[in-house]
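Encode chain A's predicted structure.
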Amino acid sequence: MTVTVEKRGAASKTRRQVTGNRPRRDSYALFLLPGALAFLAVIVLPFAMNTGVSFTDWQGVGTPGADDWTGLENYRELLDDSEFWASFRHSLFMVVAMAAVPTVVGLVLAAALFDYVGKHFGTKTVAVLRACFYLPQVLPIAVAGIVWSWILAPENGSLNELLKAVGLGSWQQDWLGDPDLALYTVMAILVWVQLGFPLVVFMAGLQRVDPQLYEAAELDGAGWWRRFWHITLPQIRPETYVVLTWCSIAALKVFGAVYVLTKGGPGGATNVPSYFSFTTFFEKTQVGYGAAISTVLTIVILALSLLGLKLQTRAEDAEEGLRT
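Encoded structure for chain A:
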C-alpha cells in the first residue's frame, strides 16, 4: 500500500509539474496586444474618423462643426454621380487586368515551368524565368509608370518607332492620350505588373502536390493539358482563392499606376474610385464627399475580403474531407 501511494503521489506531482509548465492561454494575448494596438491606431481609428467626416460638408479647413453636418447627403449624391459610377466600372476592368488575366496566365505558366521546363531544362532555368516574371512586382510603380510612359509616348515613343520600323506605321497610336485606348493600355501594363505574384504563389502551391499523381497520370498516357486540368487545378484550389482575393483587392484600390500614367484621363477614361477620392479631397477640397467615396470603397473591399476568406475556408475544408 505504501508503494502504491508513493507512486500515485509521484505521478500526481509529475502531472502538476507538466500542467504548471504549460503556457496559459491568457499569455497569448500579450503577444497579440502590440499588433492589435497598431491595427486600432492605423486602421480602425482613421477609418472611423473618415466615416464621420463623410457625413459632413467639411472643406478641410479648421474643425468640422455642427453647421457642417449633412447626414447622408453625400451618399445620396453619390447615387446620382455619373463620374462615381464610371470610376467603379473602370475598377471592374482593373479587376480583369489585375486578377482574372494574371490568375489564368500565371497558373498556366506556373504549371508549365513546374511540370515541363523543370524536367527538360533544370531548376536553374525555372528559377531565372520565375525571377524575370516577378521582377515587375519589385519595381516601384512610379518607376515602372514613367518608363512605360516613355515607351508609349505618341512622338518618339519606343513602341510607335518600332511599329514604324517594321512597316506598321498605320498602327501608331496615342496609347495613353486616346480615350478609346487609354483604359486598355493601362490594363495591359497592369497585367505585366501583376503577373509575377500569381505565378510565384502557384509554383509554391505546386510544391505540395504529390509527384506520384503526375507520374501515374503520365503512365496512363495523359498529356500535359490533361494533367494540368485534372490534377493541377483541383490540387491548388486554395491558392487560387488566395490569388483571386488578393489581386481583386489590389485592383479595387489601384492608385499609383493611374496617377503616374494618366491621372485619370483623358476625359476621365481611366478614373478609378481611389483616384476619384484623391482628386475630390485635395484638388476640389470637398473633403466630406471624398470621405464618402473612400468609405464606400473600403466597405466594398471588406466585403470582397470576407467573401474570399469564406470561399478559401470552404475549399480547404473540402480538401481536408477528401483526405480523410
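The two ends are 47 Å apart (CA to CA).
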